[in-house]
Design a protein that fits this description.
With 300 residues, the chain is mostly helical. The chain is built from eleven helices and no strands. It is 70% helix and 0% strand.
Length: 300
């Protein structure tokens, strides 16, 4: 055995060894914070580039198929307007004073219906998720109503509400309600039972368990339901504004279809898509800001 491997009697093992460099098998930080920040910034830039590239690829495919009037048999692009025509129609709408009226009317309807659906869906979801009696009484009729499409509610909404505005808000409400309700129920039912038992063993009452264990545990599912519900509220907008005949992005899209102005149809669709995506992303951001205990797992 070499002398370098021998230990001196009375000294702890490794006392005579030379200190190893920082970060080399000593548990030190292998990468300084600056290098790690640069690596994270590079990764974010790479993800952003891939997302923009995917959108650009879709746009190029749309341009090629529409300009060449491609016919795939089941799907044809012979009457689909190319991106340049859609861009010109969009610029005309942006310059028009009606854009503010269309957007204002649609935003008011969507957010009014979404707010009512969020209040009702979260309250009912928490109740059904925690009470077997409420599940037996309330869930069957709600499950029966859930598959009914928004367009089927139009005649009944006209009969039920005195004004067309309330009818349109009701349509967006029905679209947003069920994703919020079902995700809330799922979140409450899947809270770890060991957390509830631990809180109960430490002397927590029913109210304390509900506020300190159930609500934080179900919050991620609730936020997911809110984001999906916001998207479906925008999804139901065209259906809701078929009642109106006045203003709104959904009405603009439907009216463009009735006069066969195909470029304006796509403009309306893109406006709904952009605002729907943006509002759903805003809900997610607010949800994560209100849940500091929830860490988002990084995808490989």
């Amino acid at each position: 055995m070499s002398t370098a491997a021998q230990t001196v009697p009375g000294l702890p093992a490794g006392a005579g060894e030379q200190p190893s460099p920082r970060g080399a098998a000593t548990g030190g930080e292998p990468h300084p914070p600056a290098a790690r920040s640069l690596a994270e910034a590079g990764a974010r830039a790479g993800h952003l580039f891939l997302r923009l590239a995917s959108l650009a690829l879709c746009l190029l495919g749309w341009h090629w198929a529409s300009t060449h009037r491609v016919d795939f048999g089941l799907v044809t692009f012979q009457n689909v307007p190319p991106p340049v025509e859609v861009l010109n129609a969009g610029l005309d709408l942006v310059r028009s004073p009606k854009l503010g009226q269309h957007l204002g009317a649609s935003l008011a309807r969507v957010f009014a219906g979404f707010a009512a659906a969020a209040a009702a869906g979260i309250a009912l979801g928490l109740l059904i998720g925690r009470s077997r009696w409420a599940e037996d009484v309330l869930l069957p009729p709600l499950e029966m109503l859930r598959p009914i499409p928004a367009v089927a509610w139009i005649p009944l909404a006209i009969l039920m509400f005195p004004s067309s505005e309330m009818s349109m808000v009701f349509i967006t409400f029905t679209g947003a309600l069920f994703p919020i309700l079902l995700n809330t129920i799922h979140g409450v039912e899947h809270v770890d039972a060991r957390l509830v038992a631990s809180a109960r063993s430490l002397g927590s009452g029913r109210l304390s368990i509900f506020t300190d264990v159930i609500l934080p545990g179900a919050a991620p599912s609730v936020v997911t339901g809110l984001a999906i519900g916001m998207g479906t509220a925008w999804f139901c907008l065209v259906t809701a504004e078929m009642i109106s005949g006045q203003f709104g992005i959904g009405y603009y899209t439907w009216a463009s279809y009735t006069v066969q102005n195909y470029a304006e149809i796509v403009v309306g669709m893109l406006f709904i898509g952009v605002f729907g995506m943006g509002s759903s992303a805003l809900i997610k951001r607010l949800g994560h800001a209100l849940m500091p205990w929830q860490t988002e797992e990084k995808k490989p």
